[in-house]
Design a protein that fits this description.
There is one protein chain. By secondary structure, this protein is α+β, with helices and mostly antiparallel strands. The protein has 30 helices and twelve strands. The strands form four sheets. Strands 3-7-6-9-10 form a five-stranded antiparallel β-sheet, covered by helices on one side. Strands 4-5-8 form a three-stranded antiparallel β-sheet. The chain has a two-stranded antiparallel sheet with strand order 1-2. Helix 11 packs across helix 17 and helix 28 packs antiparallel against helix 29. The longest helix is centred in the first third of the chain and has 29 residues. The N and C termini lie far apart (97 Å). The N terminus and C terminus are likely disordered.
């Protein structure tokens, strides 16, 4: 029997074509269907309002902004080459290659497919009918012999047909057994077994001497290649945060060492430049002179007197200067040898900034509070790098309005200063001009802008956001008052609009980054809007709760006339009065922030309040369940409420120090946050707590000190220790801000 692959090897292209089409057809339908749905679906709310202006040419290209935008518009103008590049990039390239291979397989099958093997039929070969007698068979054989016998016909094909077909047919029909087998089973040899074949070529089975090569190929593709991918994945998981596309873990450690509680905006690029990704960028000898020139040009943007700055790694200094050059619109001053490094630095900057911001939001105490100043600094620097506004401009009082006006097209520092002198101190003031467009155009003309530049500024203002925090309230779920150890729910109502018109029907909706106004100086990385809601205590330099607004909330805040309502929660521990600020900030726009000042009064947790709460719970028939105000990162809050109400004690501030991880000042204590140089962002609390506990052991009674100095890992254990302290002394209280502070206590903080 012949090998099965010999008769079916020609089916391998068909098998391969079917395998490719099994995956290619549904993926292509999904991609094309999504494109058609996006292109032809009409959304009445957004179809007519969305505007793409990133590729729009400026009306006036004489200024630095106009030149940059004209160059950006020229690059963004679609050409046949760019369209083909867009079509043949990413996953589309895989689809195109798949269909190209499929077409080649179809052509190959059509041109090289062998004719199907004919069934051996002796009656058909001799041109006689089934059941003919022996005389008819011999007569037909003699006739074909005269035509195809080698002695009569020298043609090789005739010889092959005579020996392979005519002679076997004659023998099969003249042999009674063979003739009977053919008539019963269709073959002269009798009933034949079923033959199974595979649609694979013979070379894959090593029948032509390629066995060792095929074995090596199978071992390499089936074993070594997956093993290599697994090793790479494990290495990347150990090196990167969030997979291979994330940030190196070494960068996170560097950020942690640079992050301070009072980090300023000017020091954010210094922090980001220590990333391991930037250190790995080669620093060549020809880079020394260009970097030295950038250091001289950008001298006002960094602390040149810092002795540690000059001892930094050369690659770190180079990345720092390139970031500042991008933020200060000084990319023209960058040498051609640093252009490639500028692209690498700016391409990695967004994801490094994201991880650094997450690090800034890391809680420094068990209540989940984080430092406020670093968070604000990161958001402000993101605004600067996006709008290409120098961070040094934002120093000092009344500088925020000047920085917001520098976002305007063609507005340099001189034009922005002239606008501020005409009582237009910020972008918000410009949007709120009483006489509308005519008054704004007059202001622009007095600031030195030409008519074309004024048209560019008017087009830009259509996208400028108008943000309002309409209302913010605090409450404890199911309770009438807010006490210490409660989870406070902050309900915020916010409204977002665009442009200067008050008619929401004509307001522009920004759905993607392509709908945003042009950023001609932001060339080497993509930026999209991000909005952050913070509930903060500025006196304590603390962020009590935060949330990044998603697209659903943003769309609701823009489309609904009443705005969007959302809630955030945070725990409170110390009784007292606090001046909190609810802030909505953008990491894209300068001067688009909204603030809402609100007072929060936290009562001391007394037995009377607990009994009143239990009484109200009993009246509605739900017992203790109403006291469960929810859970947070601190654990089950209901466990807090079963603790008896303790009384005042001199150790009150010490317990608060343990709970808050150090000082937690309020407007009543008058204390201030530690300076930036007192300790690093992480690891600073343990030394402070240890020193305070040592001092307290020397001045407090033995019974009280034992309960306070015991390690507190959770809020439940903390308040159990407070309750135990109340049995030792009747004047023990929950930690919190005090109405008056003794000089000794104040000096200790």
């Amino acid at each position: 029997m012949a090998d099965a692959t010999e008769s079916h090897g020609n089916l391998f292209p068909i098998f391969l074509f079917a395998l490719i089409q099994f995956f290619l057809v549904p993926i292509t339908m999904w991609r094309v269907g999504g494109w058609l749905l996006k292109r032809f679906t009409v959304n009445g709310d957004t179809k007519t309002k969305r505007a793409t202006s990133a590729a729009a040419a400026p009306f006036d290209a004489s200024s630095k902004w106009g030149e940059a935008q004209a160059a950006r518009a020229a690059r963004a103008t679609p050409t046949m080459r760019s369209k083909l590049r867009e079509l043949l990039c990413g996953f589309n390239l895989v689809l195109v290659v798949g269909w190209f291979v499929s077409v080649l397989l179809v052509v190959h099958v059509k041109n090289s497919r062998e004719s199907e093997t004919k069934i051996f039929d002796p009656y058909s070969i001799l041109n006689i009918s089934m059941g003919s007698d022996i005389s008819v068979i011999k007569k037909a054989y003699r006739k074909l012999s005269l035509q195809y016998h080698p002695d009569k016909n020298p043609n090789p094909e005739a010889h092959l047909f005579f020996t392979d077909s005519i002679t076997p047919a004659y023998k099969a029909l003249t042999d009674d057994t063979a003739r009977e087998n053919f008539e019963k089973h269709g073959h002269p040899d009798g009933k034949q077994p079923v033959r199974l074949g595979v649609a694979l070529p013979q070379w894959m089975f090593g029948q032509d001497g390629s066995g060792p090569l095929i074995l090596c190929l199978l071992v390499g593709v089936g074993i070594l290649l997956p093993l290599g991918f697994a090793v790479i994945a494990v290495v990347n998981l150990n090196r990167y945060v969030g997979g291979s596309g994330g940030v190196l873990k070494q960068s996170i450690r560097h950020f942690s060492s640079e992050l301070k509680p009072n980090l300023s905006t000017a020091k954010v690029p210094k922090l980001l430049s220590v990333a391991a990704e930037y250190i790995q960028v080669p620093y060549r000898r020809e880079h020394e002179e260009p970097v030295r020139r950038l250091l001289a040009v950008l001298r006002s943007e960094y602390d040149a007197k810092d002795p540690k700055f000059q001892r930094r790694h050369p690659a770190v200094v180079k990345a720092h200067m390139l970031m500042l050059a991008q933020a200060c619109r000084l990319t023209d001053a960058i040498d051609a040898s640093l252009e490639a490094d500028l692209k690498l630095v700016m391409a990695a900057m967004p994801r490094l900034w994201d991880e650094a911001l997450k690090l800034a939001f890391t809680p420094y105490n068990q209540l989940g509070y984080s430092y406020l100043r670093p968070v604000l600094s990161f958001l402000e620097f993101a605004q600067c790098i996006t709008q290409a506004v120098s961070p040094s401009i934002r120093r000092g009082e009344n500088s925020e309005g000047l920085a917001s006006l520098l976002q305007l097209p063609h507005a340099d520092e001189r034009a922005a200063t002239l606008l501020t002198r005409m009582k237009c101190r910020s972008l918000r003031d410009l949007l709120a001009t009483p006489r509308g467009k005519n008054e704004r155009n007059e202001l622009f003309a007095k600031a030195g802008l030409t008519p074309g530049q004024i048209a560019d500024a008017d087009a830009f203002l259509r996208f400028a956001p108008r943000v309002d925090l309409l209302r913010a309230t605090f409450e404890t779920q199911g309770e009438e008052e807010i006490c210490s150890m409660d989870i406070v729910t902050c309900t915020i109502n916010l409204k977002i609009g665009r442009g200067v018109c008050t008619d929401e029907a004509n307001s522009i909706i920004v759905a993607t980054k392509d709908d945003l106004p042009p950023l001609p100086f932001c060339q080497h990385f993509e930026r999209s809007e991000g909005w952050w809601l913070l509930v903060a205590d500025p006196a304590a330099n603390a962020v009590l709760s935060h949330q990044r607004l998603d697209t659903v909330v943003l769309h609701e805040a823009h489309s609904n006339s009443s705005g969007a309502t959302l809630q955030v929660q945070f725990p409170v521990l110390n009784p007292g009065s606090y001046s909190l600020v609810v802030t909505l900030l953008s990491d894209y726009w300068i001067g688009a922030d909204a603030r809402f000042n609100i007072k929060l009064k936290v009562l001391r947790r007394t037995k009377e309040i607990l009994e009143a709460r239990k009484g109200r719970a009993a009246e509605v028939g739900i017992g203790k369940s109403i006291t469960r105000t929810g859970t947070s990162e601190l654990g089950d809050i209901s466990a807090w409420k079963e603790i008896p109400a303790p009384q005042l004690s001199d150790s009150e501030d010490d317990i608060a120090a343990v709970a808050y991880g150090g000082d937690y000042p309020s407007e009543e204590t008058g204390t201030e946050e530690s300076s930036e140089d007192e300790g690093e962002f992480f690891g600073r609390n343990s030394a402070i707590i240890e020193a305070r506990e040592t001092a307290r052991l020397q001045r407090t009674p033995e019974g009280v000190s034992k309960t306070v100095t015991s390690s507190v890992d959770t809020p439940v254990e903390l308040h159990r220790s407070v309750a135990a302290t109340s049995t030792q002394k009747n004047d023990v209280s929950l930690p919190g801000p005090r109405k008056t502070s003794s000089p000794a206590r104040t000096s200790s903080t």
